[in-house]
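[step 3/7] inverse_fold.run input=structure_tokens len=324
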């Protein structure tokens, strides 16, 4: 288990923060409500991005937040609190790739009009739908060249390249602190064959639990993850009810089919402290997705459901645990 350190802004409601084991689907909501502490001001951080003529990956503190290998241009706003472990400097990284093999496009290098804009905002949880205060922003740089007629032309700095990466930081102030990631071992220093065997064994165990519909055993693995995420998002009872419904889908959907564990690679995140298995497929719908996934039919065709599992090993321990 982890130690939850609370440093509240203003008055926080006092709730029982005792260690509760044996998380189940039946006690999930009750357990989470007992551990979540609420404050007068609950800061929520959001990342809004827009991109053009490229594919992208966005990471928060070196943990994947969003991967887009399908859309030539897209954008959305995403909550990032669950990847903020404590107050201080937070790092945003993005990677751009050529948009290849789309329905109406096939770019093999980054285009002169390629761009990515990211804006970080902060809002009070109670007013999460209001426009937040801008904390930081980043726009891909451009350079100006002269065309064949002597006219100045502005273009993306990495035009003609097959890869571009950049990072920037912002400061967050949150009323919680999770030492879990700081206390994780650098798994790049492990014997890689042994590590891959341990990771694969973990995934195989999760596969068996899901395939055999062992609902309560599945819940016993997510307590650390859920306590940290629910606190970081200041989850309400309604939020927890919605999360529980999503958790129960593999056990309640009749034609839910867990797919074979195959065609995967070991990937490190969190500056080497997080490990997972990702599919090696270059298919835009599968690329970079979790190796643990399922298919089901809701009546409008097959839907793929991927189980994002980010594992770590705390200092002084030898076994993998789900961190996110």
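[step 3/7] decode complete -> sequence:
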């Amino acid at each position: 288990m982890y130690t939850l350190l609370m440093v509240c802004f203003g008055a926080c409601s006092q709730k029982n923060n005792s260690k509760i084991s044996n998380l189940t689907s039946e006690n999930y909501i009750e357990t989470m409500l007992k551990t979540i502490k609420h404050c007068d001001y609950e800061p929520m951080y959001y990342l809004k991005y827009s991109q053009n003529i490229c594919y992208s990956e966005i990471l928060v503190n070196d943990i994947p937040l969003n991967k887009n290998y399908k859309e030539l241009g897209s954008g959305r706003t995403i909550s990032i609190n669950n990847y903020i472990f404590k107050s201080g400097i937070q790092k945003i990284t993005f990677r751009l790739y050529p948009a290849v093999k789309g329905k109406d496009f096939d770019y093999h290098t980054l285009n002169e009009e390629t761009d990515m804009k990211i804006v970080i905002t902060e809002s009070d949880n109670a007013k999460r739908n209001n426009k937040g205060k801008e904390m930081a922003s980043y726009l891909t740089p451009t350079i100006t060249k002269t065309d064949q007629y002597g006219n100045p032309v502005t273009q993306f700095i990495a035009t003609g390249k097959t890869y571009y990466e950049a990072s920037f930081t912002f400061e967050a102030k949150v009323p919680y602190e999770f030492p879990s990631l700081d206390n994780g071992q650098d798994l790049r220093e492990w014997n890689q064959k042994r590590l891959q065997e341990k990771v694969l064994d973990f995934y195989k165990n999760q596969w068996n639990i899901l395939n055999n519909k062992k609902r309560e055993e599945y819940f016993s693995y997510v307590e650390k993850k859920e306590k940290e995420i629910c606190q970081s998002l200041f989850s309400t009872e309604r939020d927890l009810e919605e999360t529980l419904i999503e958790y129960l889908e593999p056990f309640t959907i009749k034609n839910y089919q867990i797919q074979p564990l195959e065609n995967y690679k070991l990937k490190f995140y969190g500056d080497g402290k997080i490990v997972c298995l990702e599919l090696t497929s270059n298919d835009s719908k599968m690329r970079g997705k979790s190796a643990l996934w399922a298919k089901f039919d809701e009546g409008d065709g097959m839907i793929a459901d991927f189980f994002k599992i980010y594992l770590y090993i705390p200092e002084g321990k030898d076994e993998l645990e789900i961190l996110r």
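[step 4/7] annotate
The first helix runs from residue 28 to 35.
The helical segments are 28-35, 192-211, 215-219, 223-232, 237-252.
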